[in-house]
Specification:
The chain is an alpha+beta fold. It has two domains: 272 residues, no CATH class; 86 residues, no CATH class. Helices cover 58% and strands 16% of the residues. The chain has eleven helices and six strands. Strands 1-2-3-4-5-6 form a six-stranded antiparallel sheet, with no helix packed on it. Helix 1 runs antiparallel to helix 3 and helix 3 packs parallel to helix 8. It starts with a helix and ends in an 11-residue tail after the last helix.
Amino acid sequence: MKLDRYILRLLAAPFALTVTCLLTAFLLDRLLRLFQVAANAGADFSTTLFMAADLVPHYLQQAIPAGFFAAIFMVVARLGDDNELDAMLAAGHSIVQISRPFCVVAVLLAGVSFYLYGFLQPYARYAYNEERHAALNAGWNARVQENTFIDVGQGVTLAADAVDPTGRQLTGVFMERQSDNGLHLTITARHGMLVATADGSHLRLQLEHGRMVQEGTDRRVDVEDFRHGVINDGFTPDAAPFRARGNAQNELTLPELRAQIASPAPSISRATLQAEFHARIARVLLLLLLPFLGIPLGMASKRGRRTPGVVFAVLAVLGVDHALRFGQSVAATGSALGPAAVWIPWVVFAVLSLWLFRASLQRPGDNPVSRAVDAIEAVIERANPRRPRRKPTP
């Protein structure tokens, strides 16, 4: 128990520091883009902060595995550098016993990730989309912002190249309307003006020198030019409300995904739902494999060969992450592989990690990766032998 507590104390600091640094870096990068979106749309500062807060669960999903793996590697490498690892082995502690606290933390983090992936992140994702919708439409309020597409309700999207200070006189107008009956209307005009009705509860759009393109359900397209026109849809001064949660697979919790998959008529493609469900489970279980890769690579760094282990670890973690994304995309297309496209990369990563860990049980501080690097360097040295120095001529 003392050994477990000691290793856990060593693990806590680098794990917390790495996760904090990664999370801060991710949020700062996104904040710059959110500030730009909010500034263009005329949204206030608090909206940007709420949007960033809604992204914390999403970025935690990326920061936790990377931070945990980096912390494992650093702790084991430190134990090796200080010869503590040799002392533990000499005292009768096996590699399996030394690995036990790392595995316990992996199980706890897997539980946290299950909650993040399965329940918190879908609600946070919807909240982010809702806040983003509010930010993009903050400029409406019976006014139009330049170069900003605004949903003004009733299926109408409005934009303008130039707007006067009142927000009512428009130049370079673009309007698109999608009706419930399938009729698609697109209008462009040189000039436009938003005019309030007599009671001030609605707005009309007066247009000059424009073109109207109308496409029906039969794919027939009608084009008409006009000098003057009025769009009398009765736009409300308030922005249109955001849609209900559940129109996207990443906004559904795991029980909701399961229910949609079992439904005879799901609102989203069944292949997409299955790909999302299995990808979340695979990412949760991926945390359980990280100790079996980080521990042997950290032990091998004692030999002064830390760089190969770091490079291999980074490539392995990035590779499995991209492979899971690719597998999810393949599964979402309805491929014959189905959910197996998600699990194949996970199984390959599991076999690789367990193979390296088993090899380290036989020869602590050594693993096939280090031996492969040694062999490559030996070949390079034989191919480029050092030439003896010539004595300078008098």
